[in-house]
Amino acid sequence: METLTLSSCEDIVQLALAEDVGAGDVTSAATIPVDAIATATMVFKVEGVVCGLDVAETVFHAIDPALDVTFMAADGDSVAAGKVVMAITGSARAILTAERVALNFVQRLSGVASQTRKLVDAIAGTTAQLTDTRKTTPGLRVLEKYAVRCGGGVNHRMGLYDAVLIKDNHIAVAGGVTAALATCAGWAGKVEIEVDTLEQLTEALDAGAKFVLLDNMPPAVLSQAVAMNAGRAVLEASGGITPATVRAVAETGVDVISVGWITHSAPALDVGLDIAI
Fold this sequence. Notes:
Blueprint: H1 10-20, H2 26-31, E1 37-44, E2 48-49, H3 53-63, E3 68-71, E4 78-79, E5 84-91, H4 92-122, E6 129-131, H5 141-150, E7 164-166, H6 168-174, H7 177-183, E8 191-195, H8 198-206, E9 211-215, H9 219-229, E10 234-238, H10 246-250, E11 256-258, H11 261-264, E12 271-276
Parallel strand pairs: 6-11, 7-8, 8-9, 9-10, 10-11
Antiparallel strand pairs: 1-5, 1-12, 2-4, 3-5
Helix pairs in contact: 1-3, 3-4, 4-5, 6-7, 8-9
């Protein structure tokens, strides 16, 4: 599984440490001898998909570059409950200071990766591809979208800057589906338009749309949309899709399924840090 580059997470790590550590870890300073050495192991308490080990390493080294960090798993690995995924040796104070922030990242990102993997597995054997949305935790998008990839999903646009996605409010202001698409005629990149009804889908296809988002359509309507499309455009189903409904959506024949749930509602995994002197 691909790893994160330090440049993509260092600023986020520094913000998280500033929030948690502030001017210093007064508890560790008060209770732990300055020369105490310890080894800690990061343990998955439940089964899941590992994600965020590179970020955790960045956290530990931000507190003390001399800490020795060893991986026992890689991001993207499926592990059983009880699996040790990382060992950290060095200053006991530094390990304890970094513990909570490191665990917060691994718990959150592993939760996203694990739920993504469940949905990817749920649609296995269909032609649909699972993707994320922009419904991410503010400030954590690059990490949460990395977690989606670790879980086997793919990324939709990273932000407003890298693809055109004409949504209902754009259509309303532009004066309709055809008018909205016409305004993007000179755009060299991907142009996708959101439609709410089969009538809008017909208008979009007649206007030459190559990517169409089918918003909040039940499986029966999605099946009609796929038949109407007849392969002319890439069809994306989106809106209210959950683990309970994703298989039925995939079986309609849509090309892409975008799920905001995997980033905005995935529960954190139970991951702990056990320390020994």
